[in-house]
Write a structure and sequence with these properties.
Blueprint: E1 7-11, H1 17-26, E2 32-36, H2 48-64, E3 69-72, H3 75-80, H4 82-93, E4 98-100, H5 103-107, E5 118-123, H6 125-130, H7 132-140, E6 145-150, H8 154-159, H9 166-182, E7 188-191, H10 200-205, E8 212-214, H11 217-230, H12 232-236, E9 244-248, H13 252-263, E10 269-271
Parallel strand pairs: 1-2, 1-3, 2-9, 3-4, 5-6, 5-7, 7-8, 9-10
Helix pairs in contact: 1-11, 2-4
Amino acid sequence: MLTPGPIGVFDSGYGGLTILSEIQSLMPQYDYYYLGDNARAPYGSRSFDVVYNFTRQAVLTLFDMGCNLVILACNTASAKALRTIQQNDLPNIDPDKRVLGVIRPTTEIVGSLTHKRHIGILGTAGTIQSESYNIEINKLHPDIKVTGHACPMWVPLIENKEYNSIGADYFIQKDLNTILEQDPLIDLLILGCTHYPLLINKITKFLPDNIKVISQGKYVAESLKEYFIRHPEMDAACSKQAKTHYYTTEYPDKFSETASIFLNKTIEVERIELE
Ligand code: DGL
């Protein structure tokens, strides 16, 4: 029997805050530990082994801190590390604990959102190269054509607070043009990186009105709520005092300042080491 603990929410940096805030607003009663591995972000262009090792360290740390459930609020980690952690690591670490990702909840809802059956995925190089979205979407909807495009400049623009600059306009326009040249029939674009919702105003500004753009937070939150209904034992293993603590592997002051842009509030942050 698990001792109730906070829900762990992990990302390479700030992006997972876009997921955490949606989960919190749907389920404010739970406790959360948010962990950003800012010292080693971005993960997007790192190899499978490196992303897996960093993610495994983060999951083990959150488990040691008392979490029984960890959400990988990072597409790159979900694409490159989730399956190995679920299948190879969890049975040895603690078969009752759970790790969930953000890709499956997103792919489950796309079927009703595309009329032309042409979807575009924007993400990090790691997420796009893994083809996780193509595989998961085509398992459910073999008729949908999925085109992925990596936007390696977008996360650094956000992590360095340059996402409102003219420089950001250049890269966003360039990447959107590229994916629409690859498939001009796309009518649904998925922001397959948890950092990208910060760019949503610019993204929609550069797109024709007939293309719908979706972020993942809302869908991940709804899917977690349903998960708790299907798994009351895990719901009971998540403590509920409506408290959230934030941890980073880099400077806490910098994290607090940048995170306030994502969360629209000031937060206290602690530094921790992952090893
Ligand atoms: N926010 C992460 C994602 O959803 C990764 C960003 C990065 O570290 O490159 O993919």
